[in-house]
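Interim report to the steering committee. The following record documents the input for Cytochrome c domain-containing protein (270 residues).
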Amino acid sequence: MKSARRPDLVSFASFAPLRWMLFVVACTAAIGNARAEPAFARLYKQQYGYPPSCNACHKDGGGTPRNDYGDQFKKAGENLAAFDKIAALDGDGDGFSNSEEASAKSNPGSKNSTPQAKGDWLDTASLIPREVQALFPGVRAYLPKDALLTDADIARAKALGAELGKQDENTIYIPLQDQRPAGTALIFPAEFNKKAFFLLLATDRQLKVIAVQPLNTAHVPDAAKSAVYASFKGVSLDQLPVAKGSGIDAAITTAVKKAGTLMFVRLKNA
């Protein structure tokens, strides 16, 4: 006789089709601002075989100004082909080419990291955003999940009221307690008046929203002041509302709807 299935929507069985990496994060570690733009991080991993921290492209972590390597990547097109275009350049001026450094797992964006002295830019504490960890105090282990969309996922998302495409693929962070998922978190982009900013969405293990927070929105003050964030709390990811209107609340709601639906179709069995 088969045992009854757990009521939790987030289970290890539902993650089986995708690639995983386990990162153990000590809660006493000094956590940097590790919010690499999802598209860049995924492309970097595809090119070099490992995910970078935000310090590859930014002077002081995600959301801060780009460093010279980040500028080179942007000018080359910000796509997979850009890595080959800037491979022979030396973004950080330390005497090693960008490709030499990236291939050796040293930071091509910092002269303090070389193939002979890589530094701590890839320490696990730099790969789990501190804002995510703050929402799950006491959690020491995370499973970052590559949320890659299939045609079936895109169709399921459309049925739920969200238009998703390959450009929406992202990384979902799964906090673990007693070797079981304790919830989920996702950092994702939004846009208002042609200005991009980032939001953080977190859920419990039943995939109900526990928080939506703005990140680095100084250049979009309306996003920081919006009262719409509280309205998502307690809502299941498959029940998130569709945006109405065209103001900042609508922009946030659209982004949350897309992000939440992405999480739902990748974590919940059909």
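DSSP finds eight helices and seven strands in the chain. The committee is asked to note this result when reviewing the revised timeline.
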